[in-house]
Amino acid sequence: MKRIVILGSTGSVGTSALDVAAQRPDDFKIVGLSAHRNVRLLAEQIRRFAPLAVSVSDAPAAHELAAAVDLAGIDVFSGRQSLERLATLPEADIVLVATAGTVSLLPTLAAIDAGKRIALANKEPLVMAGSIIMQRLRRSRAELIPVDSEHSAIFQCLQGQPRAALRRIYLTGSGGPFRTLPAKKFAAVTPAMALRHPKWSMGRKISIDSATLMNKGLELIEACCLFDVAEDQVEIIVHPEAIVHSMVEFCDGAVMAHLGITDMRLPIQYAFDYPCRRGNHLPPLGRTAMAQLTMSAPDLKRFPCLRIARDVARQAGTAGCVMNAANEVAVAAFLSGTIKFTDIPRIIGKIVNRHAYAAHPSLARILRLDAWARREAEQLC
Ligand SMILES: NC(=O)c1ccc[n+]([C@@H]2O[C@H](COP(=O)([O-])OP(=O)(O)OC[C@H]3O[C@@H](n4cnc5c(N)ncnc54)[C@H](OP(=O)(O)O)[C@@H]3O)[C@@H](O)[C@H]2O)c1
């Protein structure tokens, strides 16, 4: 029986993870759940999964939760460090990190120090502080299993292969909702248009990142950290069918690909079961889905976020943290109607260029720069 904490249980990945756990009650026990402010859904999840502890972002949400559901015998954390407390719950074996944005950086580090298995869906902490996370991992008995579908695919392709045999990663992406949109129409893109992803059903922030292709840029940096490769060893491929979740090329020229349906329950289950592989009720991929697989290079002119992210991946150091913070603010401003779709890369590019770069920043410096980049981006928005 594996005991699981889910950070971000009310989100798209979090609810998929609960579905995986609900299918196999003899194998998985949910011991911790967290939401930001979606108290109604969290209350339903508490009734259904009876966790030992839960977390919400602030005291008003905790009061609302107490009014909505019987919390007898359940620890309720709120406010500062509530996610850290949940992530280090002594009863937990696995911590699924599925919050949106950078809020889970410190909880992820806390879970590493506590020696947990971390199933990581949330890519922003790695973009912000990848080298610190990987360094801490090397010093602890914790393990990190990627849940982002592309990185899970790469991780799976690498099983049983010597690290030195890895030559190149082909990171695939569907191309998002504007794959074929002419450049002159980008300025008129609305949040409703950008939220309509052709292949995946996801939270709002990652959906906008998928429309700008910043998501692929974040994933490029994530891949460099997780698999210890240089930026130029990762090639991004636009693959609209979203069947090949990524590929790995080895030193002898052999390429291994991971194919599957577009359902996050697959990589979540893999991270929970690793190193085993177990059956499930998901539909098989089927031959017809594989009949036509097309692949092309991304258009960096129409998707400048991807160009910025590649420069940032090359620079490493503090650049990822600043890009990530500026992107989060710009995406929120676009969603609230304050800026245009085409302003997102413009704002991010300006802030990355004007920041005080450091190659090997401390965690404190990263946190200061994150706050600085958010203030600058808010002013520009
Ligand atoms: N969705 C996918 O298919 C997918 C695939 C690969 C990777 N990812 C990555 O997984 C992460 C989660 O994505 P998602 O699509 O599941 O996001 P989502 O649907 O927006 O869910 C985010 C979750 O985080 C919680 N949350 C948001 N802000 C918070 C804060 N300030 N403090 C504490 N909790 C907070 C939300 O709580 P409330 O519900 O209460 O707001 C919710 O439970 C992202 O980093 C994304 O890039 C997602």
Strand order of the largest sheet: 4-3-2-1-5-6-7
Poorly predicted segments:
none
The molecules bound to the chains, other than polymers, are: NADP nicotinamide-adenine-dinucleotide phosphate
Give the CATH topology of the largest domain: Rossmann fold
Order of helices and strands: EHEHEHEHEHEHEHEHHHEEEHHHHH
* Strand tally: 11
Q: What is the terminal separation in angstroms?
A: 48 Å
Q: In one word, what is the shape? A: globular
The amount of beta strand, in percent, is: 15-25%
What CATH first level of the largest domain would be assigned?
Alpha Beta
- CATH architecture classification of the largest domain: 3-Layer(aba) Sandwich
- Summarize model confidence as the mean pLDDT: 96
The count of domains is 2
Brief write-up:
This protein is 44% helix and 15% strand. The chain is built from 15 helices and eleven strands. It has a seven-stranded parallel β-sheet with strand order 4-3-2-1-5-6-7, sandwiched between helices.
Walk me through what this model shows:
This protein has two domains: 2-146, 3-Layer(aba) Sandwich (Rossmann fold), CATH 3.40.50.720; 152-262 and 284-316, no CATH class. It is globular, with a radius of gyration of 20 Å. The protein is an alpha/beta fold and 381 residues long. The mean pLDDT is 96. The chain has helices spanning 12-23, 39-49, 59-68, 82-87, 105-113, 124-139, 149-157, 191-194, 204-212, 214-227, 265-273, 304-315, 319-335, 343-354, 363-380, and strands spanning 2-7, 28-34, 53-56, 75-78, 94-97, 117-120, 143-146, 166-173, 234-238, 244-250, 255-259. The strands form two sheets. The chain has a seven-stranded parallel β-sheet with strand order 4-3-2-1-5-6-7, with helices on both faces. The structure holds NADP nicotinamide-adenine-dinucleotide phosphate.
